[in-house]
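Supplementary Note 3. Input sequence used for the single-chain structure prediction.
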Amino acid sequence: MGTEEASVVVPRNFRLLEELERGEKGIGDGTVSYGMDDADDTFMRSWTGTIIGPPNSVHDGRIYQLKLFCDMDYPDKPPMVRFQTPINMACVNQETGLVEPSLFTMLTNWQRKFTMEDILVSLKKEMSAPYNRKLHQPTTQGNDDRRTEQKDIVLRCAIL
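The predicted structure, written as discrete structure tokens, is reproduced below.
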């Protein structure tokens, strides 16, 4: 027997079930959360994440909703991450809300051990970075009604 540790590769669905359980329990200080969009989605592909903007930044007190899409090659490949709430950040495409993998270090240097929670926490830290924390932010008024409705839902959930 060698001294090398055998690494166990957890199957995709078991890994996603672990992430779902962790997301349902709540994360850290409650400023980041995530869960599945559709409980009937047997492939567990579509997820929603929420980030409450960090203090001492232009994001302070804002609630950002994101969509995360885990294709069948997750966690070997990162999920697609898109802000539903308009945001101005260096790593986010202003037209689509897509977090650009080439501009967001965690997605560029993706490792199987990373999770959706890690992505959300890292995006929140990115909001506080000197090059992001003072960027002018789009107003939520006058934007897509669907985005406003989603924000209202998140607010009600956070208050309950």
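Confidence is low (pLDDT under 50) at residues 142-160. Residues 145-159 form the longest helix (15 residues).
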